Amino acid sequence: MRILGIDTSTKYAGVAILEDDKLIAESTMQFMATHSEKLLPEIAHILNTMKIPIETIDYYAITAGPGSFTGIRVAVSTVKGLSFVTQKKVIPISTLEVMAWEFPFCNHHICPILDARKKEVFSALFKWKDNKILRIKEDSVSEIDNLIELIKEKTVFIGSGAELYREKLIEKLGSKAIFPPFLYSYPGPRIVAYIGFQKINDAIDAKELQPRYLRKSEAEIKVIE
Q1: If DSSP codes are grouped into helix, strand and coil, which group holds residue 225?
Q2: What is the C-alpha separation between 155 and 162, in angstroms, rounded?
Q3: Within 13 Å of residue 101, how many CA atoms lie on the same side as its CB?
Q4: For residues 18 and 1, what is the distance between their CA atoms, to the nearest angstrom?
Q5: pLDDT tens-digit profile of 52-73?
Q6: Do 18 and 197 touch, CB atoms closer than 8 A?
Q7: How far apart are CA 181 and CA 111, in angstroms?
Q8: Model's pTM, two decimal places?
């Protein structure tokens, strides 16, 4: 079984191919151009390099949000197009869950945080138990102070929001706040594909796929106003 994992939810983006639970190929980069200019060519490149016909991809796994509104929109529209052509299903995955998977068997709570702008963050809480990752807090958008009030024990903070509010987290939480190298602070497409492999039963038709923004985009707000 082959799964194509796609992530464009942050300034880092990429694609990966898994065959069953084994990594076949992965490409990740900080896109200097817009995701819309790079994503489809990168998918074509990785497929051509590995000589894998698009028709042999069984499922598409995608970070559907939260994260960059533009990046998520590009990934959703791209996957919808590919799915329409190949008639394969899509597995939408939380960006924050993908980030938490970077720390398997961690003894502490894991809190992925993405900068949502407007002095808010996207966040969730996870922990590992019995070799499984468990969700403690659902994906949400809030001010950083509201998130800090929920932290009661040592927690690993990752993501752009963790970097942005690092000083405040340390000030309020002291030794409870743990910060790994930033290398581990973005969602890897190989993990997107791997979680997709675990969640095949959650696959949906592409027409059902919707971005998980958690709040209205600037464009939507302006239309309402």
Answers
A1: coil
A2: 11
A3: 17
A4: 8
A5: 999 999 999 999 999 999 899 9
A6: yes
A7: 14
A8: 0.92
